[in-house]
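User: Can you recover a sequence for this backbone? Please restate the input before giving your answer.

Assistant: Of course. Working from this structure:
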C-alpha cells in the first residue's frame, strides 16, 4: 500500500542514543534529532544499561517534540509511528516502545515495530534507491554480519560473528591502549598515524564461510602489548592500532567481496556504527572500484551511528507492506532479523 507524502515518525532507544526523526516517503529526512549519552557512559568505559534507561526516560519526550518542531509537522500529519522493537538493551528499548505506543494510542496513529539492524541497512535508502539482489555488511558494536536481500523486507544472514563483534574488539583493544570510550573512533584516528608493521592474525575460519571471529585477534593484540612490557620494550600505540585495524578491515573486505561475487549481487551496502571507520570505508571503496556491475553504497557519517531516521526509513517499507504493531508490543532484546 503506497501513498503520496507518507510521513513517518521514527523513535530509536536501543542503546545509548535517544533519537527521534520524521521521514517523508521513506527517503526524505524532515528532521533527525539525536541526544547522545556518550559523556555519561565514558567514565565507566562502556554503556551502563540502568543509566542508559534513565537518560532515555529523561530525554524521550524532549527529543520527539524537537523532531516534530524541526520537521514543521503536526501529529495529525503523521501516518505512522515506527519504533525500534529490538534487539538492544531491554530497559532502553522499553522506553522507546512505550513512548511509541502512548503516541499511537492517544493520537490514533498506526504503530510499526522495526528491527534495529534493518534500520541500519535502510539508512542507505535515505541516500539512494536499492538494487536487488543486494548484500549489506553490518558492522557495529554488537553486530557483525553479512545480510543478503532479494527484495524489500527480506533478510537472510549469510555470515555473522562467532564471538566478539568488530566494534566490541575495537573497544577492548582501545581499553588496552588506554584510549577513551567509545574506542572505535580513537583506534581509527590513531591507526592513520601508524604503520601496520606488527604481525597479527586473520581469522578466515572455514574456506567457504562468511562468518567472522575477532576474539583471537583481540587477544593477540593484548598479548603482544603485555609481552613487550615484560621484556621492557616499547611498542608504538599507533603501529599497534594500524596493525589491528588492517587485520579487521582485510577480513571484512575480502569476505564481503567474495560474497558479492558468489551471489552475483547488484549492490553492496555498508551499515552500522563501524561504517564510520575511515580505514574500512577506504578499503571497501578500493576493492569495489575494481568490480564491474556492483554498486557500493557507503552512508554519510551521520547515518552510520544510531539514529531514528533509519528506523523511520525501514518502518516506511513495513507500513507500505501492511505490517502493523499491536498496542501490546513489547521490547525484544534478542529479536531475529530473519523473522
Amino acid at each position: 500500500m503506497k501513498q503520496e507524502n507518507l510521513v513517518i515518525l521514527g523513535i530509536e532507544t536501543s542503546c545509548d542514543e535517544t533519537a527521534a526523526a520524521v521521514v517523508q516517503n521513506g527517503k526524505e529526512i524532515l528532521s533527525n534529532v539525536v541526544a547522545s549519552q556518550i559523556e555519561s557512559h565514558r567514565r565507566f568505559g562502556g554503556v551502563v544499561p540502568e543509566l542508559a534507561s534513565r537518560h532515555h526516560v529523561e530525554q524521550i519526550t524532549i527529543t520527539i517534540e524537537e523532531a516534530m518542531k524541526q520537521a514543521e509537522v503536526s501529529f495529525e500529519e503523521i501516518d505512522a509511528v515506527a519504533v525500534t522493537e529490538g534487539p538492544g538493551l531491554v530497559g532502553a528499548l522499553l522506553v522507546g516502545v512505550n513512548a511509541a505506543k502512548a503516541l499511537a494510542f492517544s493520537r490514533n496513529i498506526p504503530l510499526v515495530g522495526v528491527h534495529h539492524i534493518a534500520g541500519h541497512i535502510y539508512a542507505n535508502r535515505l541516500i539512494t534507491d536499492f538494487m536487488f539482489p543486494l548484500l549489506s555488511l553490518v558492522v557495529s558494536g554488537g553486530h557483525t554480519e553479512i545480510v543478503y536481500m532479494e527484495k524489500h523486507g527480506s533478510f537472510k544472514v549469510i555470515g555473522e560473528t562467532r564471538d566478539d563483534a568488530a566494534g566490541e574488539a575495537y573497544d577492548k583493544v582501545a581499553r588496552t591502549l588506554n584510549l577513551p570510550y567509545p574506542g572505535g573512533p580513537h583506534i581509527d584516528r590513531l591507526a592513520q598515524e601508524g604503520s601496520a608493521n606488527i604481525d597479527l592474525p586473520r581469522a578466515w575460519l572455514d574456506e567457504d564461510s562468511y562468518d567472522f571471529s575477532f576474539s583471537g585477534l583481540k587477544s593477540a593484540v593484548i598479548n603482544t602489548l603485555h609481552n613487550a612490557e615484560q621484556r621492557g620494550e616499547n611498542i608504538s600505540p599507533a603501529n599497534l592500532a594500524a596493525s589491528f585495524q588492517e587485520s579487521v578491515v582485510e577480513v571484512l573486505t575480502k569476505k564481503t567481496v567474495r560474497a558479492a561475487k558468489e551471489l552475483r549481487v547488484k549492490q553492496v551496502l555498508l551499515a552500522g556504527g563501524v561504517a564510520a571507520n575511515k580505514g574500512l570505508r577506504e578499503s571497501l571503496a578500493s576493492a569495489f572500484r575494481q568490480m564491474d556491475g556492483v554498486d557500493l553504497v557507503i552512508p554519510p557519517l551521520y547515518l552510520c551511528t544510531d539514529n531514528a531516521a533509519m528506523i523511520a526509513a525501514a518502518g516506511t517499507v513495513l507500513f507500505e507492506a501492511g505490517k502493523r504493531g499491536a498496542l501490546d508490543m513489547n521490547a525484544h532484546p534478542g529479536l531475529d532479523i530473519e523473522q
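That completes the design. The first strand starts at residue 7 and ends at 12.
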